[in-house]
Amino acid sequence: MRIARFSIDGNVAFGAVETAEGDSGTGTTDGLVINIMKGIPFADFELSGTRVPLDKVRLLPPVLPNKVVAIGRNYADHARELGHEVPTAPWAFFKPSTSVIGPADPIVYPSFSQEVHHEAELAVVIGRLCREVPRERVKDVILGYTCANDVTARDTQRTEKQWARAKGFDSSCPLGPWIETDLDPSDLAITATVNGELRQAGRTAQMINSIEDLIVNITEAMTLLPGDVLLTGTPAGVGPLLPGDEVSVTVEGVGTLTNKVVARA
Length: 265
Known about the structure:
The chain is mainly β and 265 residues long. The chain has helices at residues 76-81, 154-159, 164-168, 211-219, and strands at 2-8, 11-19, 32-38, 46-53, 58-59, 68-72, 91-95, 100-101, 107-109, 116-118, 120-126, 142-149, 152-153, 173-180, 189-194, 197-203, 229-231, 239-241, 246-251, 255-263.
C-alpha cells in the first residue's frame, strides 16, 4: 500500500494512493486517486471508499516525525568522495522536525551557507513505539519506506564541529511523496537529478550497515515513536544546489520526490 498524507479544502488526512479504474498504470500521478483513510496508519484504520484524484490534493510530508535519526557515511564511496574514513559503526545524527518539508515544497537556501548539497536517501518510517528491537523483529516496527533528501550546508559542516546547523536548517529534510509499505529495501536503486541531469546513482545493497543493523543500534540507545524517520545514508555523487534548481530523488519501488531551491527572501 502507498500511504499519502494530504490536504484538501483545508482538511488534512491520510489515504491510500491507488490506480484509478481503467488507468494504464504509467507510474505518473496521472490517473492516480487517493482513497481517504478513516483513522491514521499507526493504529487501526479502514479505507472509506471515497476517492479523490491525486492532482486535486496537495501532498504533504507523509509523516510529521517526532525526530529524524540520520546516518552519516553509510556508503563507502560517499565517505571517500568527501575524503573521510569509512566508520566502523553507525554514525547517527539528528535533523529536527522543523527541517521536514513535503513534495513540491521549496528548499530555502540558508543565509549562512554558500555551498548547499543534495543527498538522495531511502527513508524508513517507524510504525510503532519500540525500544531495544532484536534483529528478528525489525520488520515488525517498520511501517514503510519513502524518499528523502538530506540537504546539507557542506561548508558549514566542514567548519563546525557538530552538524546541527549544517544538517538541521529549516527545509533541509524533504520527504515523500508517500510511504510504500510493501517493499523489500535490500537492493533498490536510488538516484538524484538536478534540472534533469543525473547526479547520484546507487543501490541500497551498497549500504555499509543494513536497515536491521541501524534499527538495532539506534534502539539500544533511544525509543523510536510511531512516525519517526530513519535516513539510511546517501550514495556517492553528492553535489551543489543553487537557487532556481529543481532536485528530484527517486527510490525504486517508492516514487519520486521533487523540490525547487529558492533564495531566502
